Amino acid sequence: MIEQAAVVVRGEIIEWVGREQDLPTEYRYPCRHRAVTQFGNGSREQIEAAEANKQAEAIDEATNEATAEPRHIDLAGRALLPGFVDSHSHLVFGGDRGDEFEARMGGQQYDGGGILRTVRATRAASEDMLADRALALLREARAQGTTTMEIKSGYGLDVSNEAKLLRVAARFTPETTFLGGHAVPEEYRPVQAGDDARSGSSVPHFGDRDDYVHLVCGPMLDAVVREGNARWSDVFCEPHSPYAFDGDETCAMLTAAKQRGLGIRVHGAQLGPGPGARIACELGAASVDHCTFLTDDDLDALAATWLGKQPGAWAEMSAETSSAASSAASSKMQPAASALERQYGTVATYLPAVEFSTKQPYPDMRRAIAAGVPIAIASDCNPGTCFSDSMPFAFAIAVREMGLTIAQAVWAATAGGALALRRSDIGVIRIGAKADFALVDAPSYAHIAYRPGVPITHALDLGGHDRQPHRG
After folding, report:
1. 225 with 95, same domain?
2. 184 exposed, middle or buried (CB, 10 Å; 0-12, 13-18, 19+)?
């Protein structure tokens, strides 16, 4: 933390950060509040955020192009954080599954089958309809302080519809993920008595689940790579669900994606212990997500991926690697650079609001911290298990139910999310980083968890630019 500090922004990049008394003459201006939050990077041992709970003052340079005069923004004693980095979401979908939530609240268990209901509705929706809904959700998220959001496909589950979903996602973010391995679709499932996913519908039968895995590994990935709208690939590895994929199927799909230049991610250990975390480590995945039932062996494997790769120094990578990371993130869907895999291990990304919505047990995130595993918090906004795009809500649950200190939650929701996306230009307030800020209408970031459900956190727009999400 830097107390009595100032931040200078030129365009969309942070140009200077430091104590106000050291502010260069060309940036000086009269103001009442001269303290700003600067976040360092958490140590691998503690994954701690800096104690950044002071009043904030931001200086926005070059926002008046006509006069070239700097614009000074007095934040009037409010706390300033890096914008939230939501590294796991499913925003592109059709239909509604509110009845499933009601059923779960009545005691029904989640098994993954509802995904196929969303697939039917999503296939029937036009690209523009899907984009309109995704845009509305993105604007909700930004209004609560989220400035970077990863978006997955996964509700098309055939060649044309997965491509459709990725085209929509790519309108809004460079962090797009191909999730053809989300579930085995109806046309590749055997018809069984009492199968709710197939009942009442006339569905063609194209083969078995092995045929579907071959489709993902071949024609589906070929189309995804050809269109260039995915940076990542993901698989729902969950042996406890008859709709998801086992370890061998997961390895096959992720290996095929990696061979085509996509970075990889894994849904793992959501419904019970399983091979997802181990596979993520073996294949060099950026993140394993959910982590509800991680075992001690899983945590040891995750920690081992970071040996010699201190997350506390992740933003201080060589200039060459930092340039590669920035280029991959800012250009139109460049694949995750292989050089980044040598710099990063696998992050454990927790999705607190999923446990809230499914009544699953809350995992203790302190186990990962104690094991030396970098952590992230994400929303997992989706129509089935967590229809919430609120990072402050996930943040509050992580503090109240999952063992994090408030400072640890700040780190996990900002720098941790950036780490899970292998990005060094977001999730921090430092020279050269993007000027993505979350403003808290309170004197301390503790109020994010202290006042859950109250809209006190939102993205801070700088530079006079229209930085609201919009359809491309």
Report:
1. yes
2. buried
Taking the model in full, what pTM does it have? 0.87
pLDDT tens digits, 446-456: 999 999 999 99
Domain count, the chain: 2
Clarify whether residues 379 and 446 are in a common domain. no
Residue 90: half-sphere exposure toward Cβ, Cα within 13 Å: 28
Do 178 and 65 share a structural domain?
Answer: no
Instruction: Report the chain's C-alpha Rg in angstroms.
Output: 22
pLDDT bracket for residue 27 (50, 70, 90): confident
Q: Which domain holds residue 172?
A: 84-420
H helix intervals, 216-259: 221-227, 247-259
Residues 17 and 110: their CA atoms lie apart, in Å, by: 47
The reply to whether 10 and 70 lie within a common domain is: yes
Give the tens place of pLDDT for each residue, 209-233: 999 999 999 999 999 999 999 999 9
DSSP structure string for 252-293: HHHHHHHHTT-EEEEEESSSS--SHHHHHHHHT-SEEEE-TT
Does some domain include residue 456?
Answer: yes
Report yes or no on 349 lying in a domain.
yes
- What is the spatial distance between Cα 381 and Cα 374, in angstroms, rounded to a whole number? 22
